[in-house]
Design goal:
Length: 502
């Protein structure tokens, strides 16, 4: 029999509850949360638990909203205040909700997400207890069937009636470090792992978020339910740049930091008997699968927005997305241009060099930095449009000084983060359009040039299909590079970026 508050999507069951009318402007008309199971009976039990807890969630949200509107601490509200809201002041306070700032609304949504995560953790703990009980019952029954218990009882009677019991479980020596919170142990972890500054900053943020969600309890008191609740909290937390949720990479990285510290405490230091995060994985919705949506190429108007942005027309010092009188560093101006006109990935550009073929044809050399596929090592001719921006003169001067082309941000991951943040600052926040989309634009440029498929695959770094697919591993020849330079055209007019005499 169908349940009015359970829906099914891709064989997984979800809880769907109607939000009270006075709270709908804050969190939406319905609340939908995964029940984490494809079993109908488990879903019914979990939904009943969460639906029973929902009235308490609404009370907490109302109290938080009332305290925010009145500008008083939440602890100062009395039961009479909440009763008066429900009976008398609800309409007036509901009308006042329009005055809440976006930050206030975000905090209310975060509070609801934390309440839902706590409810989901209770459901998982209940399932774990049932599973332990089931396994224990099966073991006991199997032992009886084999006569093991009867033999032990007979042995006990033969030993003068003394009862036979299992040896006491090993009790680890008390370790004072078990009472320390994770943040107090983090410096020792960083020293053991020799982590860099950026990695430490990322770990510190994850630990602060975890302790804000679970409390700054001793590391010995952290349970698998705490780690699982943190994973749920990450999935439900709003993302950067106006995104509704955090990216897959952010969720996986933050949860990985917590699991790594707990594993170190258990396996390297012996502070814990076992890591409570060993079996916790990112929520199912946050895992990368082959069915994930593919990145899309940028539309022409978005390309015009990027290459007409302050990065190329003048920006503020240190704030490249804001119009101003300053000229952005050359490596940052060339980063997006090089991605568009060579199809290089963000992680390939920082270590790229130049290579000159017969006839004076210059190519971007990605033979050492392209590691994603066997065909990734490749040479990409410098197209006339990129040459006219002054790229070639800048690149030769950069390499002659003993460095690499794109070294300003320190490492490939830093460049990926910077380029993503810059697009977000321009308002390009769609998760299907990222810096990698420029590579898709380059693929379209190759297709529209009607190149031989083997040549196109050599330039793009794909093996392709058909009988000629293995030739993609052979580097581009000077004759083929000349064809690419002659036929491949940029997807938009870039003449405003050309340098005189280049």
């Amino acid at each position: 029999m169908p349940s009015p508050y359970i829906i099914t999507h891709h064989r997984t069951h979800y809880l769907r509850l109607r939000v009270p009318t006075d709270l709908a402007p804050l969190v939406g008309t319905h609340l939908t949360r995964t029940l984490g199971t494809q079993d109908r009976r488990e879903a019914l039990a979990a939904a009943a638990t969460l639906a029973g807890a929902a009235p308490g969630w609404w009370r907490v949200l109302r109290a938080t909203a009332m305290a925010t509107l009145r500008g008083i601490p939440l602890s100062d509200l009395t039961p009479d205040d909440l009763t008066r809201w429900a009976r008398e002041d609800r309409a007036a306070l509901t009308a006042d909700m329009d005055t809440l700032t976006p930050e206030d609304r975000r905090r209310l949504r975060d509070r609801l997400a934390a309440l839902c995560a706590a409810g989901s953790a209770e459901v998982r703990e209940g399932r774990l207890r049932l599973e332990v009980l089931r396994v224990t019952t099966e073991i006991h029954a199997a032992g009886r069937e084999r006569g093991m218990l009867q033999a032990l009882e007979a042995f006990g009677r033969g030993a003068g009636g003394a009862s036979v019991s299992a040896p006491p479980a090993h009790q680890p020596e008390a370790d004072s470090r078990r009472a320390l919170p994770m943040s107090r142990l983090a410096p020792d972890y960083y020293a053991d792992r020799a982590l860099g500054e950026s990695s430490r900053t990322s770990h510190d943020q994850a630990i602060r978020d975890f302790e804000a969600m679970a409390g700054a309890k001793g590391i010995g008191s952290i349970t698998p339910a705490d780690v699982a609740r943190y994973a749920d909290w990450l999935r439900q937390r709003p993302g950067r740049g106006g995104r509704e949720s955090a990216s897959v990479a952010t969720i996986t990285k933050s949860l990985g930091h917590i699991r790594a510290v707990l594993k170190w405490a258990a396996e390297s230091k012996g502070i814990l008997d076992a890591s409570p995060g060993a079996r916790v994985r990112p929520p199912r919705e946050a895992r990368i699968t082959r069915g994930s949506p593919k990145r899309l190429p940028f539309e022409t108007h978005t390309l015009a927005q990027i290459f007409g942005s302050p990065l190329y027309t003048g920006c503020q010092r240190g704030r490249h997305a804001e119009p101003g009188p300053c000229i952005a560093p050359a490596d940052r101006r060339y980063f997006f241009l090089t991605m568009l006109l060579t199809g290089a990935r963000t992680e390939e550009l920082p270590g790229a060099t130049l290579k000159e073929l017969d006839g004076g044809i210059v190519c971007l050399d990605l033979t050492e930095t392209a590691k994603k596929t066997a065909a990734g090592a490749r040479l990409v001719p410098i197209l006339p449009a990129l040459r006219r921006t002054g790229f070639l003169a800048w690149a030769r001067e950069r390499l002659a000084s003993g460095g690499v082309l794109f070294r300003g941000e320190g490492c490939p991951s830093d460049w990926a983060q910077w380029s993503g943040r810059y697009l977000g600052a321009l308002g390009v926040t769609d998760q299907l359009h990222t810096p990698y989309s420029l590579r898709h634009n380059f693929r379209i440029m190759l297709r529209e040039a009607n190149l031989n498929s083997d040549v196109a695959n050599k330039v793009f770094g794909h093996e392709g299909e058909g009988a000629g697919r293995h030739y993609a591993r052979v580097l581009l020849t000077a004759k083929e590079a000349a064809v690419v330079i002659r036929e491949v055209k940029p997807p938009m007019d870039l003449s405003h970026l050309y340098v005189r005499g280049a």
